[in-house]
Amino acid sequence: MTASPAFDFLAVCARGLESELANELVELGCESAEEERGGVRFRAPLRQGYRAALGSFLSSRVLLEIERFALSDESALYDALRQVHWQDHLALEQTFCFDVAASPAAEWITRQFAAQRAKDALADCFRAQSGVRPSVDRHHPDVRFHLYVGQAELILSVDLAGRGLHRRGAPRTQAIAPLKETLAAAVLRLGSWPVAEPGAAPPLLDPMCGSGTFLVEALCLATALVPGLRRETPTLGWRGHQEELWKETLRGFEERHRALTTQTEPLRLFARDASKEAVAATRAAVQALGLRVALDARVQRVEEMVAPESEVGLVVSNPPYGERVLEQAQALLLHETLGDRLRRHFLGWKAVILTPKELGACIGLRPSRRHVLYNGAIETRAFVFEIASHAPVEGSTPAWKKSSPEATMLANRLRKRSASLEPWAREQDTDAYRLYDHDLPEFPLVIDRFADEFVVYDATSRSRDPQGLLRRMRDARLVLEELFPQARVQLKTRAAAGIGERSALPEFREGHAFEVRENGMRFWVNTSDYLDCGLFLDERSLRRRIARESKGAKVLNLFAYTCSASVYAVAGGAATCVSVDRSASYLEWGRRNALLNGQSLDPHRFERDDSLAWLERNARRRFDLIYLGPPIRSLSKQARPFDLERQYIELLERTLRMLEPGGVLYFSSPLPQLDPQQNRWPGDLRVQEITRDTTPRDFQRSLGKRRSFRFRRKPRATS
């Protein structure tokens, strides 16, 4: 019996996966596997190459080597490729393309140039024989060639599957930033997810499931549903391809998968996420596999996470890393919260967390193992935790939960501020106010209190020491939790989104909203999902003034946001109030604020529109009282761009035309350099700055950062 010829293969993978991929290839039947940067080489018959291309969960491509040449410079590239017998690999009527990878040492060549010269060599070879050449198809070629250009060598290969193996065939929810399936499968294997005996899989929980990649890959690993069984049948146009051998290999995987799915109990998967869209995407992705599974998918925040009522299992997660300071601050808090929940509620479980090294330290658990993996260009670690060894010690405070020595200054200042402001706030029937306003130069932060929730912002537009800022924000959180044991703390920074730019979500997130009181009135706020929480605290006194002057008035609230000024106007007895904002979610928020205060929605109006466009379309309407509190800037695909610094005079002129004789317009400017008093206004208008009178007590340190102006039009002369 003639032995099958052997070929040289390269299984390509993400950096950091080489060792685990080598183990997987041995499990698939490879007798030897040699690791190199970004892949594993092995020599085997074609059957084994097919097993790797169909059955590998970790490889992104399996390349079969065709030719290897010594290469000195770019001029030798074409000559080397012109020697290839291209007709042995590609038919004239087929399409092709070249993927190119180059060693950093090959500085003398670009990938685009190499691909062009390879195409020229192939085309000239066919033209010399038949006068015509095959066509290029970059997206769906019949044969995909791969060219590796090293410092002194050239390797030509053919892609066995014709496309990336990480594309499992299931739809991906791009908005949720899914993890690559190959990386997810590697993390599961590093967490000792059972692959030798898949039927014995324990329960698995993903507390931040996103689009469900971990759970889908876990289910497939446990039932041996290899990637080759999930992908659509590829176009295998390589002329050396053996279709019967490919189908025979595929049938072997099918039989193993069928045996496991009929002989084992349904796998128990638990999907959790703060986003209901993510939970829905995960449920759809798991159900699309058509396998028996006990899936428990529900909306839940990390700080609410508890172990399911079952035997111990595996927690797997890829928490948000954060590239900007805002995201890093939130990521830091998230990782510490995750570690705290694991320590308290998952004793006996195992956890594997994929995250950067510095954030992994914030989890506060000592890993039993750690592996360097690359999520794209980001260097991360897969931290493996044996949570059974981390039972909390009674009366002890773990090191990760201790603030720095400098935090004592902040704690003392917060005690004094709280002792001063709490009696005043109770007298005002208000539980939403600024607790700290960059009082100490060592802590350039602001802290706003919303009932029992605290929001910590950075007080600088750009930090020269972002890591130091993160440490200070972490100190602030720990101090607040010590001073206010029932507190929940959010870390945010305005520098990431731009001061005065309002964030928006597609809907009012009822599950994350809660009530606060202000001057005896009630408002919904949301400190977790939005940059701004729904209530601008520094405009509290101005809103109260609006309420005092609204009795019987026709009121207009432009750039209404969550319509808090409108609620004040209606409470003050406004005959009618029109609230204009381009965000449907914020207007819905405003309606809920009105209903929370027992107000009828009629005859008041909530009109969704760009405020400038609304002014043009409603130029003939007149109002007795107008509140104008625009953002610094606004960008929207549905409306024209708005820049307050350039357009504020035009905006004021258009709005003032709608003011009745004797009427009043209040202009609240988030840019302190704007001063409408410097402009020449018609003689019947009087403008007055009222910043000092409308700055609340808790904002005295930031007096002048937001300026307020009152315009009054002279009443009609009476005969």
Explain the layout of strands and helices.
Elements: E1 6-12, H1 18-27, E2 34-36, E3 39-45, H2 46-55, E4 61-70, H3 75-82, E5 95-102, H4 111-130, E6 135-136, E7 143-149, E8 153-159, H5 181-190, E9 204-206, H6 213-223, H7 227-230, H8 243-263, E10 267-273, H9 276-287, E11 293-299, E12 314-317, H10 325-345, E13 350-355, H11 357-360, E14 369-375, E15 378-386, H12 407-427, E16 432-437, E17 445-450, E18 453-458, H13 466-483, E19 488-492, E20 514-518, E21 521-525, H14 540-548, E22 554-558, H15 564-571, E23 576-581, H16 584-596, E24 605-608, H17 611-617, E25 623-628, E26 633-634, E27 642-643, H18 644-656, E28 659-669, E29 685-689, H19 691-694, E30 707-713
Parallel strand pairs: 5-6, 5-7, 9-10, 9-12, 10-11, 12-13, 18-19, 22-23, 22-25, 23-24, 25-28
Antiparallel strand pairs: 1-3, 1-4, 2-3, 4-8, 7-8, 13-15, 14-15, 16-17, 17-18, 20-21, 26-27, 28-30, 29-30
Helix pairs in contact: 2-8, 3-4, 5-6, 10-13, 12-13, 14-15
